[in-house]
Amino acid sequence: MTTVDTSTAASLTSAANTTVSSSTAISSDFETWMSLLTAQLQNQDPFDPVDSTEYTAQLAQFSSVEQQVLTNDLLGDLISVSTSSDMASMAEWVGKEVRVATPADYLGNPIEVHASSDPVAYSAQLVVKGPYGSEVGRFPIDTGESDVMWEGTDSEGKAVSWGSYSFEVESFDSNGVSLGVDDAEIYTEVLEVQRVGDQYALVLPNGSAVTTDDVSAVRNLD
Predict the structure, then answer these.
(1) Owning domain of residue 177
(2) What is the pTM of this model?
(3) Is 71 in the same domain as 151?
């Protein structure tokens, strides 16, 4: 699962502050340059005026500074508009159900699990693990992709306690040899969208946060 690097937020904030400081410095230099150029023109010796070539070079530098200030302001406006647009678009995820590999909070109701076995598997099992990673149950499932309902029981059919449970799929060949274990997915609601650095995090009911890259399917709440 892709994790959201919260340290990116601090880096982005630092970069933004640096950009603002740079823009302020350029604006200050722009005003200083204009004042110096005006003073030079006002106080030049009429019998020994500024050389036209030097004056043209100074005007070119003046124009360059002016364009740099305007470009920085425009970039700042574009970034602001882009960020607002992205957030508005991401807000559409709120209230939707996403299919993602994450633990589920069992509160007495069956949990829908999307299981996907190895493509060459002869048989497969859904593995249920408890809050501390210990295995609480194994159930035979169809190979390939399928949606199964976990009723909140262990391998012996006994009810488990409420809590956080995760799901895996273990695949086997025709000799019963394991082909490996893959994460199974559940459908869960998106409660909130947060901007973390240059990424957007989808906050889930269990308190975890995932990115859109972790999501394999989206559907409306029933």
Answers:
(1) 105-183
(2) 0.59
(3) no
